């Protein structure tokens, strides 16, 4: 928008006010028009109407001026890949905007290695960006904006579709294979006295151990160091051997959902060796063992590695032992989260109980667990995990155990406690016998299907423990080891007015049966007659 048009705005507003005074019958329309003009005025120079935002995964927010104080204009939303491709089309590379470090990686800042002063940095962006856009436009090629408001927009032209990206065990293995197991290319430690990096075999740790969300001193943030190292390595690989396959250099190469879906996945990659244990007995720290009240927990470490995408699922900040940070009393390092809370927090993705509780809601398990009371553990849940030696004996006995199998109960204690002949093949439900024929429920077929799901899950096998537990999916308040009673023994007809949480027989059947089908995404039967065949019409 030109300065002349800006100067005309006050006169335009005065004219509108005069018009409204003369035409009182149109005052409402005038107010609406004035409000619309106000919106236009407030959107900023060069942006006179709302735009439909274009989705992109490569957006970078240029807000480097915040180091000098609050921004006077909105930060610039910058489509990085769009510029990268435009630069390549001109036969140039990233060095056009970023300076090179001694090791060949790029500085993160635009055309500088440090923030000098406010005016210098601002002029650098304005002069270089606008000049490049103008030069490109003069060459009759598609170019970017050259006015203030077209860059500093209150409503950006683009909508970020950036997806988070991380290193899982499949991708980690592929990098190991591609680099001939040279872990030192990525992993290092810092020698503060010598102000240098060094590598220790077998002590590799997560990048997050040192590189946090924000940069501090000479330690760059996780975001900066990952982009600098990963992209730098990928670029270097291409420079050395243009025919060699390497990773992406663009934002969308990692952060675009469609491209993520096409990343090669190695099924069951070899276990990463970092001198980590195969099997451990989880306990409180050594100096707190005498305060522990429950037996230790046998923990198959290697088995958990096999089913997890990466170590951060459990070791969410560092790769240290859990009780290094989480103690019985809690520490400042753990944010006051005690060992008990860290292992048992049902709402945490990092805790044992929270992770296992999440597994209950997979399709195979949700038919039973989705209808059960949430947040409540069974009476035998504690002893299933806390099955190891007493805490005061753990140090002397720790090396004796090699597998979780050593703590499993005898097979005789996990079988049905009543005769299989007592389990009916078919159950006839005639609660709606006045209108429909009895529903025929394939009782044994359902049990067999549930038992098959359990047998395919190591977690389910371990935590169910006893075959009788499967009966509690429907007979939800029946003690394990006892033949469950009929549904009508507890659910009357109609419901009990003094116990509103116990539905009547009609409600109990429909809640349990339909609820299970919904949780397990079973689409048939889909209507009443799918279960209840209609009675034949009777003659007069």
What this model shows, in words?
This protein is mostly helical. It folds into five domains: 3-42; 54-160, Alpha-Beta Complex (Cytochrome C3), CATH 3.90.10.10; 169-260, Cytochrome C3 (Alpha-Beta Complex), CATH 3.90.10; 280-406, Cytochrome C3; 414-531, Cytochrome C3, CATH 3.90.10.10. Helix content is 35%, strand content 6%. It is built from 20 helices and ten strands. It has helices at residues 3-22, 27-42, 80-89, 118-138, 148-151, 169-178, 222-240, 251-255, 257-260, 301-307, 322-325, 339-344, 352-359, 363-369, 381-385, 394-397, 443-455, 458-464, 505-519, 528-531; strands at 54-56, 59-62, 76-79, 158-160, 189-191, 196-198, 280-282, 297-299, 427-429, 439-441. The strands form five sheets. Strands 1-4 form a two-stranded parallel sheet. Strand 5 and strand 6 (196-198) form a beta hairpin. The chain starts with a helix and ends in a 9-residue tail after the last helix. Mean pLDDT is 86; it is low at 1-46.
